[in-house]
User: Which sequence fits this backbone?
């Protein structure tokens, strides 16, 4: 008779007690961590907060002046503009397929997506990024807050689940630098 490890039996018992399938785990942008049940499937979805890096820098200019040059600063960094919200002074790219290089530097300078046996995923897989920048009033001028969220997928289509990347903060610095250059600071 073959022995079955107790851990495996415990896992089967838990699945039997909780339902026929484990909850789905998804990355979710924003502060929605937690568990919620989904009526359509009867299961639960577990949302994990990704550690979205937000780089903030103060620019010695008014919010209006920074807001006026921000789309040009994005264009200089080769970031497409998908949406502008003049009330909140927020510009968004939406998720887009990233080029292999931005401002002459490889994507590995901007994102850390982990490694495979063949090397860094960011260099081997298809990269998508989503950029958001908000201009906020500050006592010293305007605060430029940028967030870059990256994901990668195998180019061969072998997986449908994207891998979330961590920003290295370089693209956020370039955006603020471009704003300063456009303002002559």
Assistant:
């Amino acid at each position: 008779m073959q022995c079955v490890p107790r851990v495996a039996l415990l896992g089967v018992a838990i699945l039997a007690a909780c339902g026929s399938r484990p909850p789905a785990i998804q990355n979710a942008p924003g502060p929605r961590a937690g568990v919620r049940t989904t009526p359509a499937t009867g299961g639960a979805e577990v949302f994990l907060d990704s550690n979205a890096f937000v780089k903030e820098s103060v620019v010695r200019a008014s919010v209006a002046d920074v807001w006026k040059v921000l789309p040009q600063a994005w264009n200089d960094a080769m970031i497409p503009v998908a949406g502008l919200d003049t009330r909140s002074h927020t510009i968004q790219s939406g998720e887009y397929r990233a080029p292999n290089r931005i401002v002459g530097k490889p994507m590995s300078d901007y994102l850390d997506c982990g490694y495979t046996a063949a090397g860094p995923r960011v260099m081997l897989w298809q990269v998508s990024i989503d950029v958001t920048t908000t201009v906020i009033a500050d006592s010293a001028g305007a605060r430029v807050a940028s967030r870059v969220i990256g994901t990668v997928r195998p180019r061969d289509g072998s997986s449908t689940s994207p891998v979330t990347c961590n920003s290295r903060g370089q693209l956020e610095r370039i955006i603020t630098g471009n704003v300063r250059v456009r303002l002559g600071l």
Observations:
- The longest strand covers residues 126-138.
